[in-house]
């Protein structure tokens, strides 16, 4: 079974993402801050990380860049999810190393297609 880490500070968005992934047969763990996310990544292996961009302590762009710079986490696919959906935001997200960029509100079918494509399910 694939395992996903969702880094999201909005309770509603976190519930939507969690429910969607669990229905797709993916085990989910959540974090609300960059600090929590890095603690999770040190303790467990994840097949995909879904990152909000606007978080309380650091931006998802920064987190993505750091994950992709580390040899232990660079191979984990990162999906950025944000209300920031302009072409420039998407371009910047991909420049930080993101493997995909989805705009909120999340299209659940598109989320599952993207996750399955990235984790090879």
Description:
This protein has 121 residues and is α/β, with parallel strands linked by helices. It has one domain (3-119): Response regulator (Rossmann fold, 3-Layer(aba) Sandwich), CATH 3.40.50. Helix content is 45%, strand content 20%. The chain contains 5 helices and 5 strands, in the order βαβαβαβαβα. The chain has helices at residues 11-23, 34-43, 60-69, 87-95, 108-119, and strands at 3-7, 27-31, 48-52, 78-82, 100-103. It has a 5-stranded parallel beta sheet, with helices on both faces. The chain is globular, with a radius of gyration of 13 Å.
Number of domains: 1
Sketch the topology as an H/E string, one letter per element. Answer: EHEHEHEHEH
- Tell me the fraction of residues in β-strands, as a range: 15-25%
> What would you report as the Rg, rounded to the nearest angstrom?
13 Å
Summed over residues and divided by their number, the pLDDT gives a mean of 95
State the distance separating the first and last CA atoms.
9 Å
